[in-house]
Design brief:
single chain, alpha+beta, D-Amino Acid Oxidase, Chain A, domain 2, FAD/NAD(P)-binding domain, 2 domains, three-stranded antiparallel β-sheet, globular
Length: about 375
């Protein structure tokens, strides 16, 4: 965020919520054994240190901060894209409200159900649409005072993840510590999600059945969840390219991920950094395809690796990952190292690389 524009990071900090205790500011999650009968709160297995600690924002509030940075005369909101046509030297966008727009290029950031993705790789391509990951999530909120009364301040006000067979539960503070967010993940036995709706009202009995035999505190957490619902978790298979001529995809449109690494939005921000850097070198519209090609070469391997790693993390947390299963020593060893390649990546090197690739290709002409 700082490398794109310090104002973006400042807006993030206005909305961000970290762990509540001062000595927990540099920890991502405390991992606990969710089925440990010897402990009401689940024995703590491992604390994962990271520089920034667990941090979250209210999506709508952060978007407000971002929108405030965009000049009003160049932004048009409330549009839904229906169709894209590449004319060779331009792109025509057609919207659901019957309007259209013509531009030199299109960068599609239209999410996991992206129409632009289909325009880039073809609507019939096996990777054109997201696929069900085999996991789903129950999501809900608990007033922090109620959570603290139930669990005590330490567990309520600092991020926790409870691991068990076939599921895991994570809790962390949001809204500057006023609320505890709860996400409880389960596994679909048949690996299928055939309902056209990906978000549905919660069946509490099904949720409680998923976590039968878990430690007392997790069952109490689930019983206190307000406004809960169930989310099917989808992700993209690897696209063979992120661009076609003057059309490119970015963020979830390019590499929609399950949430198990907490890195999906971060990958979109990394995309934006590289895209902004390479587009800054475009002085004529004929250079746009080369800029998109440089972006694709730098960003596609890393972002697609994150999708695969996030998928595997979901099975790791649920003690179902082949080679690890419920061997706690192996699980803890993987937990200790699996995030480092995401957090410690050299983004300034990526900025230089995307410029180098673009300039090298331009020099050949």
């Amino acid at each position: 965020m700082k490398l794109i524009d310090p104002a973006i990071h400042e807006g993030f900090l206005k909305c961000a919520t970290n762990n509540g205790w001062p000595d927990r500011q540099h920890f991502w999650f405390s991992f606990r054994k969710g089925e440990d009968a010897s402990s009401k709160f689940g024995a703590r297995s491992f604390d994962l240190w990271c520089e920034t600690g667990q941090s979250s924002v209210h999506r709508a509030r952060f978007l407000d901060e971002l929108v405030a940075l965009v000049p009003k005369e160049i932004a048009h909101f409330g549009k839904r894209l229906d169709d894209v046509e590449d004319t060779g030297d331009g792109v025509i966008l057609r919207f659901a409200d019957g309007t259209a727009a013509t531009h030199s290029a299109l960068i599609g950031c239209d999410g996991i159900k992206s129409k632009v993705r289909q325009a880039v790789i073809g609507a019939d391509h096996p990777a054109a649409n997201a696929v069900f990951s085999g996991k789903y999530a129950y999501r809900g909120l608990i007033p922090m005072d109620d959570a603290a009364a139930l669990m005590g301040d330490e567990l309520a006000r600092n991020s926790q993840m409870y691991l068990g067979h076939g599921g895991h539960i994570l809790t962390f503070p949001i809204e500057h510590g006023k609320t505890m967010n709860v996400v409880a993940f389960g596994t679909k036995a048949d690996g299928k999600w055939e309902d056209p709706e990906w978000v549905k009202p919660l069946d509490r009995e099904a949720m409680f059945k998923d976590f039968e035999g878990w430690v007392e505190s997790t069952r109490q957490i689930l019983s206190l969840m307000q406004k809960p619902d169930i989310w099917a978790l989808f992700n993209h298979l690897p696209a063979p390219t992120y661009f076609k001529n003057r059309i490119c995809i970015l963020g979830d449109a390019a590499h929609a991920s399950t949430p198990h690494n907490g890195a999906g939005a971060g990958q979109a921000i990394e995309d934006a950094l590289c895209m902004s850097r390479v587009v800054a070198h475009v002085y004529h519209s004929r250079d746009i395809p080369r800029a998109f090609a440089a972006f694709d070469k730098v960003r596609r391997p890393r972002s697609q690796a994150q999708v695969q790693q996030a998928y595997e993390s979901g099975w790791l947390y649920d003690l179902q990952l082949p080679g690890y299963m419920d061997d706690w020593d192996k699980v803890q060893e993987r937990l200790a190292t699996k995030q480092q390649w995401i957090w410690e990546h050299d983004l300034e090197a990526d900025m230089k690389e995307v410029e180098r690739v673009f300039n090298e290709e331009t020099a050949r002409l």
